[in-house]
Fold this sequence. Notes:
about 25% strand; about 30% helix; two-stranded parallel ribbon
Amino acid sequence: MHxxxxxxxxxxxxxxxxxxxxxxxxxxxxENVILVDAEYxxxxxxxxxxxxxxxxxxxxxxxxxxxxxxxxxMDGGLREGSNVTQVVLMHxxxxxxxxxxxxxxxxxxxxxxxxxxxxxxLISCVKVEETMVSKEQLxxxxxxxxxxxxxxxxxxxxxxxxxxxxPIRKALAAANPDMHITLLTMQPVTGGNFRQDMxxxxxxxxxxxxxxxxxxx
Length: 217
């Protein structure tokens, strides 16, 4: 099992260009993109927290967002260097934040950036106007746009594969064959023109859960 060793915080974040778009697909401008269903990932963190607090007998802190993004990027194949990674956190607006991440408030995260050993991460938060389009529809339309881009070289996807795997798979069907695509899932999925990695591993690292804590004795 791979547990990401990077520990980061947002002390060095600076303002970046915001792209809070209500019902249009975001513009993807970097060679590296991470597209996230924010409510889904937040729900997974909550479930992991409850289970591991019971298993380990200790309090689990909120997940560190910067650590998770770096670990997710590494799972997607990114390595140390002067990279630029565009992060899009898509949410339905029902809550103003991811309750299990720190920082997690969308209005504070939108348009900021942080630097680490993997380069610069530019964050935008896209609130879906669900009277115009559903979050699933906009997420998959955005996925289709970025997957067919000639400019994006590496795409990491953290979508709701429990409920939306079929449309996600369909959105990736016509992806640029030269693009390095990684789908982060909680359970292995079959087929598809993409690589897979376990979403839980990067989230465990962000929660401060050490590999030796969960290995059988």
